[in-house]
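Task: sequence in, structure out. Protein: Transmembrane protein.
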Amino acid sequence: MQAQSTSSAAHVPTQGVDAVEAARSGVSWGAILAGAAAATALSLVLYLLGSGLGLSAASPWSDNSGVAFGIGAILWLTLTQLAASAIGGYMAGRLRTKWTSLHTDEVYFRDTAHGFLTWAVSTMLAAALFSGVIAKMTGTAVDAGAGVAKATMASGAAATAAAAKDNGDSAGGNPLDYFSDMMLRTDKPDTTGGSADLRQETMRILANSVKNGSLAADDRAYLASRIAARTGLDQATAEKRVDDVYARSAAAAAKAKATAKEAADTARKAAAGTALWLTVALLIGAFVASWCATLGGKLRDGVAHVSHR
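Result:
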């Protein structure tokens, strides 16, 4: 009778522990949040260190130095993910509650899940805190390429609006000023006071022709007559000057457009490469956090076992 009561008394606490374990969630959010906070803080420290070492800014516009900075930034980003995820995952596994009456496989799964959740929370915190940094890394190249393209288009298609606003007050502000001056070159002094208006009109005609890709016959004849009157050249020579200058301005516009397209393509490739390597680094961080959480969980259970002894 005494042996049976002793056995029954010893079994009751076990049933109570099992019931509590079954009713309790398997997620230790306190440990997860602690590990995520540690990982985010370490990421901030390593980012600041990388900024000081010049490893967090890569320029896609330079040649050799840009490649070196890009490799350095990738390596530093990967190292940051490895260190931060390892610390966060280990702390989550080590600080969790001890799970009783669980199979080893279940404990391993829970530790892995805790490490992954720690990485996920840390990544979201980092995205919220460093959103400007991430946007700069992935968007600077694209924005720069778009800026070059817009500037090129403004020099050609929007030259008419710029000329109307400037009214000739900002000399050298529009690229077509040079070609307008080239058409109106003369050794005769200007005594009429209409050079500014003539230059603006010439620039507007030239800008519209470059935009449309051809110089209309009536515009050609009109420009030749105005140039002949302004410079003293004969009509044939004036028309030849119009053709030559238009050809040069059209070639310059085509070259600028090709350069902008090439720059935009280079920027697109740089942005795609940055996003790809960022994804790889984050996936590595997820794996390391999950693995280190299992290590911390094993040590947690081992320490608890020794203390109960």
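DSSP finds ten helices and no strands in the chain.
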